[in-house]
Write a structure and sequence with these properties.
The chain is α/β, with parallel strands linked by helices and 341 residues long. It contains 10 helices and 14 strands. The protein has one domain: Alpha-Beta Barrel (TIM Barrel). It has an 8-stranded parallel β-barrel with strand order 1-2-3-4-7-8-10-14, surrounded by 5 helices. Strands 5-6 form a two-stranded antiparallel ribbon. Strands 9-12 form a two-stranded antiparallel sheet. Helix 2 links the parallel strand 2 and strand 3. The protein starts with 9 loop residues before the first strand and ends in a 7-residue tail after the last helix.
Length: 341
């Protein structure tokens, strides 16, 4: 558990990959370059967020397939793929393919629940089956079974002269199951992820259950519940995903922009939001030494050995370069982390 003197083991980052609708290629290229920069700086992992029907990456698995050919070491993750949009069998094929291309570096993160704006998209997404689609944990369980190699067909063997059929997903990537993550924001989901032997992705959003409104305490309790249910116990992997913006090498203009961004987002952190009572973490902005002090005081940070810090969504490429460079060269070392060779 990271405390002063105990090194943080893994440092990763998350990006949304925004693009201009009139020129989407440029934004996707910027995202790939950010991942390449992350590898050069020694980050342990780079993660993509999923955005359907928005101007952010809608197909992170496809983008990570490209990233496998432009990197050689850094782990590549999704945080997270909402399975309500996916067919688990087809997704299992895509994930295994990208894992093979990456030589075992893929870390898929998934979540469940109805797609956002369900009433608006169900006619296009599931025109014939919307009323019977299952958006429960069973959708994750189906994916897990298929990734593990459970039968996907009742037929296997040769057909005709050359066609060979498998009864399980191909390609099969044996290590992929151990690198699957669940994105949970409630104690129930964290405990369920532990029971399934998954890894746990936490983010800057939790569900305020009961009267609790202390974000860090709620998140710490969720991580503890996850490990108590996981076969690996205290060794089970959990990561924290706060929005972190170090300003060590930022220009005056960048610092002003970052401060305005954080100020605009801060009101939502003061009390639970909406019928689900979602509670948002405060963005961490400032010099790396100051951010490190705030993290060491964070109860949830003290429960993890690795982090996936989220990059702000709406910044420019040069801003991401500055933030990532300061994370790797200033904040990481302040937390005892050392870049990968």
């Amino acid at each position: 558990m990271p405390l002063p003197g105990v090194p943080l083991e893994k440092l990763g980052f998350l990006t949304i990959g925004l693009f201009d609708e009139a020129d989407p290629g440029a934004g996707h290229e910027t995202t790939l370059r950010v991942i390449e920069l992350g590898e050069q700086l020694g980050f342990d992992s780079a993660w993509l967020r999923n955005r359907h029907l928005q101007y952010g990456i809608s197909s992170p698995v496809a983008v990570l397939a490209a990233a496998t050919q432009r990197t050689s070491r850094i782990e590549l993750g999704t945080a997270v793929i909402p399975l309500g949009w996916e067919n688990p069998l087809r997704l299992a094929e895509d994930l295994a393919t990208v894992d093979v291309l990456s030589r075992g570096r893929l870390n898929p993160g998934v979540s469940v629940g109805p797609p956002m704006h369900w009433d608006d998209v169900q006619g296009a997404l599931y025109p014939d089956t919307a009323d019977v689609e299952d958006f429960s944990y069973e959708r994750v369980s189906r994916l897990l079974r298929l990734v593990e190699g459970a039968p996907a067909s009742t037929f296997a063997g040769r057909e005709g002269v050359v066609e060979e059929w498998s009864d399980r997903v191909q390609p099969h990537s044996p290590g992929l199951r151990s690198r699957l993550w669940y994105g949970g924001g409630s104690e129930r989901s964290a405990r369920w992820a532990g029971e399934q032997g998954l890894n746990l992705l936490t983010s800057s959003v939790v569900k305020a259950e009961g009267d609790a409104v202390d974000f860090a305490a709620i998140q710490a309790a969720q991580i503890q519940a996850f490990r108590s249910a996981h076969p690996a116990g205290e060794m089970a992997r959990a990561s924290q995903g706060l929005v972190v913006i170090p300003t060590d090498s930022a220009s005056a203009e960048q610092r002003a922009k970052y401060a305005a961004y954080v100020e605009a987002r801060t009101p939502r952190t003061r009390q639970p939001q909406g019928p689900q009572r979602l509670l948002f973490a405060v963005d961490l902005l400032g010099a790396s030494e100051q951010i490190a002090e705030r993290l060491y005081a964070d109860a949830a940070f003290r429960e993890v050995r690795e982090v996936v810090f989220a990059l702000p969504f709406s910044f420019e490429a040069e801003d991401y370069e500055q933030i990532l460079t300061d994370m790797a060269e200033k904040l990481g070392p302040a937390l005892g982390w050392a870049p990968a060779a």
